[in-house]
C-alpha cells in the first residue's frame, strides 16, 4: 500500500517547506508593497505611504467612521489630489470633479462604485442605484422634466401642495409643540418635524396631494398620520447605515447581489402574489408598502396634475423603456425618490433652523424676516412671482446655501470607477478600475479661504453669499458654481430644485410667524437621543451638542 501523503509526511520529507511557504508569502507581500509604492501608475500621486501600501489603512478609517474627516485633512496637507488606497484616489479640484462626474456627454460621468447597489428596492434597480450610464440614462430621461425648476414652480402655483404642507407645519408647531403655561411659544423636536415635512412634500410631488403622506397630520384623521409618523421614526434606526463604506471595501456580497437581482425580485413577487393585495408591508417596510400601493392607486386615480407616478406609468407602456420594466421597477423609482428626498431635505432644514436659533444669529433672522414679501394664506397657491421672489431673496438664499456648504447632508465620498482604457485626471494617469472619487465635504471645505493652512473654519457665515461689490460678485459666482452639496453632472441630484423650493418656502413662512430661540429645559420626548446617533448617511457628527429642540416664539398667529 502506498504511503498516505499527509502534511506530516511532507514535512518529514521536506522540512524546509513551512519556511519556504512563509518566505514566498513574505516576498509576495514585499513585492506587492514595492509595486504599489514605486511602480504602480498611481505611485506618483501624493498621499500617506501607508495608504498607498495597503487598503487596510482606509479600511481602518472606514471602520472608525472617520473617512470623510480623514480625507478632508489629507487634502489640506497634500493638495487637491490624494491617494487614499492602493487603488483609490480622492480629488477636490474643479477640473477633476468635472471629468469624473460630468465627463463626456455620452458617458455622463464615470460609472458608480458598487456601494450604490445597496439602494435597490423590491429587488429592482432604480435611477440612483443603477451603476452604468446605459442602465441609468433611460431612467433619468423618464422624469427629468418633472424635477425642473420651471415645472416645480408652475405646478406649485397651480396646486400649492408645498405651501399647504408649510401651513401644516405651522399647525404642527402650534398643536404638537410644548407650550409652557400661557406663553405664545412652542418647543418642538424639529428633527422628526422636518422629516415629516420633507416626506409629505416628496410624496405629494410623486403621487399628487390626495395620495401623499400626511405625516404632519392636519388634513386627515390622526390615526393615519400617527401611523405614518411612527413608520418614519422607525425608519431612522441609528445603526442602519453605519459603516457604509465597509460595504464598498468588502464588495463581494454586493457583486453577488448585483448578479442575483432577478432572484430577489422573483422572491418578492412570489410573496406578493400570495398575499392579500391590501396587506401591509408589501416589499419590506411600511414605506415600501406605501410606495407600491400608492403607485397602484395612481393607475386608477383620475389624472388631475402631472405627477411623477403618472409619468412613470405612461413611460412604462412606451418603447422608450426596457420591456422588463414592471410595476416593481416603477415602485423602486418612487421609493428611491422618497428616501433620497426625505432625510437630506429634512436634515438640512434642521441644521438651518438650529443655526438661526443660536443667539449670534438672531440678528440674521431679523434681516431675513424684514426682507420677506407678502405671502398668501396657506389655502391659496402662491403665485409664480411670490415663489420666485422668495427663492431669489438674497437673505433666504444665503442662509440655505451656507448651510449646504458647511453642513452638507451627504458629506461622504461619492464613489466612481475609472472606465475601460483608463483616464488622465488632474495630470495623473489612472488605470481602468481605479476608484476615483470626491467627498462632498472635502470639496466644499476646499472652497473656503485658508483651507490648505487648516484655518478655514466651519463657522456658519451666511453673509459670505451676499453681493455688495463687484469683487463679491465674482467670488459668489465661483462659490455658486462650485458648491457641491447636490453633486454634479448626469448623476447629480435630480431633486435639487424641489428641495430648494421646499426649504425656501418653509423658512420664509416660519420666520414671518415665529422667532427661533434655543431652549434649555423642556419636558418633551426626544425621538432620537442626540444628533450623532441619527447620522443616517453621514460619518461626520454635526452639532452633536444639540438635542433637537427649538423654541418657536410666535409673534403672529
Ligand atoms: C438638501 C437636499 C438634498 C441633498 C443635499 C441631496 C444630495 C444629493 C447628492 C449629493 C446626490 C449625488 C449622489 C451621487 O452622485 O452619488 C444626489 C442624487 C440624487 N438625489 Fe438628491 N439631495 C437632496 C434632495 C433630494 C430630493 C428632494 C430628491 C427627490 C427626488 C432627491 C433625489 C435624488 C436622486 C434620485 C438622486 C440620484 C440621481 C441619479 O443618480 O441620477 N434628492 N442627491
UniProtKB/TrEMBL annotation:
Keyword Chaperone on entry: no
Cofactor list: heme
InterPro entries named in the record: Cyt_P450, Cyt_P450_CS, Cyt_P450_E_grp-I, Cyt_P450_sf, Cytochrome_P450_monoxygenase
Transmembrane segments: 16-39
Binding site for heme: 493
A Gene Ontology molecular function term of the record: oxidoreductase activity, acting on paired donors, with incorporation or reduction of molecular oxygen
Alphabetical keyword list: Heme, Iron, Membrane, Metal-binding, Monooxygenase, Oxidoreductase, Transmembrane, Transmembrane helix
Annotated family: Belongs to the cytochrome P450 family.
PANTHER family listed in its UniProt record: CYTOCHROME P450, P450, PUTATIVE (EUROFUNG)-RELATED
Identification of the protein by name: Cytochrome P450
Gene source species: Orbilia ellipsospora
